[in-house]
């Protein structure tokens, strides 16, 4: 019996040494970061900035096909903000919602179109930035900070009156909502993108010619939908912070 307890204690201690996934350890200003995530995030950022600079460098009064395409994307992203927040307050939030949607969209697609998991760097598998829960957590917390800022900017400290209206008994529910909103954004995006990349990578290894094509198409569609859902929910939360606390 005593030997079983010792064996169980030893196993418990070893379990604490197990690490989930391999990462490239980077330390910046004393902060420990996943190097592969920073690397792929930089790649996505450079791609987005380069594309924007090349396509809108010389805008024309009569736009060509590329400029028409860019304007169409902007109008679509602007509609998300207008529909959720309203035209009166959405103007200042269009850049944030648009940047959020484009970054997530490109991040999702780059990990699917280019099977980064099949490209090892320093013995570590690469993946899209949204494949790392640290990235999705940062994006979710950024949205939380944004809707708190929106509410405080609109009503000042009276924003917090909404936590007790129409009945003080709803205060615990309001607090719980502030925790569940970023959690739902975080795990929805992370779980879907991780699953999509794993499925595409597995099919590329097992049958690298025909079978991955429909799977990849489905994963690209799912990645697009996830970017749209994340940005739309972010706009909806900002709208809720502004509209639901109009207490004069």
From TrEMBL:
GO BP terms, alphabetized: proton motive force-driven ATP synthesis
Compartment(s) of residence: Membrane; Plastid
Membrane topology value: Multi-pass membrane protein
Key word Mitochondrion present: no
Main location class: membrane
InterPro entries in alphabetical order: ATP_syn_F0_a_bact/chloroplast, ATP_synth_F0_asu, F0_ATP_A_sf
GO cellular component: plastid; proton-transporting ATP synthase complex
Annotated GO MF terms: proton transmembrane transporter activity
Membrane-spanning intervals of the chain: 38-56, 93-113, 133-152, 189-211, 217-238
Keywords recorded for this protein, A-Z: ATP synthesis, CF(0), Hydrogen ion transport, Ion transport, Membrane, Plastid, Transmembrane, Transmembrane helix, Transport
One Pfam family it belongs to: ATP-synt_A
Family: Belongs to the ATPase A chain family.
Protein name (database record): ATP synthase subunit a, chloroplastic
Taxonomic classification: Eukaryota, Cryptophyceae, Cryptomonadales, Cryptomonadaceae, Cryptomonas
């Amino acid at each position: 019996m005593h030997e079983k307890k010792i064996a169980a204690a030893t196993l418990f201690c070893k379990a604490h040494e197990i690490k989930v996934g391999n990462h490239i350890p980077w330390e910046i200003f004393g902060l420990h970061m996943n190097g592969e995530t920073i690397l792929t995030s930089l790649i996505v950022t450079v791609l987005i900035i380069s594309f924007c600079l090349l396509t809108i460098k010389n805008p024309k009064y009569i736009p060509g096909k590329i400029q028409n395409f860019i304007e169409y994307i902007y109008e679509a992203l602007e509609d998300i903000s207008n529909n959720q927040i309203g035209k009166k307050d959405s103007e200042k939030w269009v850049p944030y919602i648009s940047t959020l949607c484009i970054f997530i969209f490109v991040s999702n697609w780059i990990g699917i179109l280019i099977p980064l998991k099949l490209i090892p760097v320093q013995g570590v598998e690469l993946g899209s930035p949204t494949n790392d829960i640290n990235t999705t957590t940062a994006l979710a917390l950024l949205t939380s900070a944004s809707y708190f800022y929106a509410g405080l900017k609109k009503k000042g400290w009276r924003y917090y009156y909404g936590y007790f209206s129409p009945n003080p008994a709803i205060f615990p529910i309001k607090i719980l909502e502030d925790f569940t909103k970023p959690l739902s954004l975080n795990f929805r995006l992370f779980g879907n993108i991780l699953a999509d990349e794993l499925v595409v990578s597995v099919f590329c290894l097992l049958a690298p010619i025909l079978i991955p094509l429909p799977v990849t198409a489905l994963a690209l569609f799912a990645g697009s939908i996830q970017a749209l859902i994340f940005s739309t929910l972010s706009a909806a939360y900002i709208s809720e912070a502004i509209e639901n606390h109009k207490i004069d």
